[in-house]
Amino acid sequence: MPSKPIKQGYKIYGIADHGYLYNFMWSSRQKGLQDIVLQPDLTKTGCLVKNLALSLPRRRLSIYMDNYFTSIPLFSVLRACQFGATGTTRPHKELPPELKELKERFSTKLPWNTLLAKVVDNTLCLAWQDNNMVLALSNIHTVHNTDDFREKVRKRPAATSTNARIVRTVFGEESTKELCIPRFIDDYNHYMGGVDLANQFREAYEVHRTSQRNWWPLFYWLIDVACINAYRLYQLYTVQQKERPLAHKEFRIELYQKLLNYSSQAKLEQLYLKLSGKRLFIPESPRIHYWARRQKRTTCVWCLHKSRCDRVLGKKVIKSRVKRSFGGCVFCDVALCEEGECWAQYHSIRNTN
Questions:
Q1: Do residues 123 and 89 touch, judged by C-beta distance below 8 A?
Q2: Model-level pTM?
């Protein structure tokens, strides 16, 4: 999609708040939308929005969406499920015909801030004249009260913008001016764009790699989403604690360092578990483990273990430190150096690297 910051060719529908992606559903060109609960009076797109809304942790929330999803039947269903909804819309079957006609025939003739509204199935259908005619739906707003309008500082549009002559006459010679606009427009501008914000955060530092497997892009996308969600939660936490949050880049560096450090610890633990399971020395039975000469000279298992741990930690490995021995523990059946601390460290209850 040319106007989107992401470049990958998959389609995922998500519900997000200020860049935090709460839930998502995938769609493919071959198999279409994933299996969801369908409703006879809604399209598949409407059912998608309803399923995402019902996955939220609580009701009585307001959802803002663009004209790809909005319809009067969907807003009526969301209202019945105790969800508010606001969004721009395109002319569709249930939209009042007079609003369609305004959009098609009079979008360049009406003065700025002209507002017309009609209620259909408890959904407010609106047509508002800005740079162009804006069609919108809402089941939580009204337009007949004084507090349904707000004074907002607006910027004068460029002379080359669509229908600039309609709006520029309101500004006169001023570049900015405080104008009274409908509340539903102000709320839509303020709360809309949670998914776009998540895409913008993801596009700046993404882990995506080119792959021929169709599931790899989804895996990379999940990693990106987890990182962005963690960053947004971190910002929320620092604000509550009245602390200065790290910048996005600083947070990602800190996150990667912690994850890589955890990876080193996991590798060390794996090396530790690979040692012989019989090495535990029991003080009450010291004669079980005793050193004796072996038939063949082999590498000391503890020297080899230490060199592997050094390699995981990024230390310089000297081959001469990995010694070979003719003897070892008879009970554990491993080679160990006759001199030094290899015997004691190998048979300790817990070794420190």
A1: no
A2: 0.73
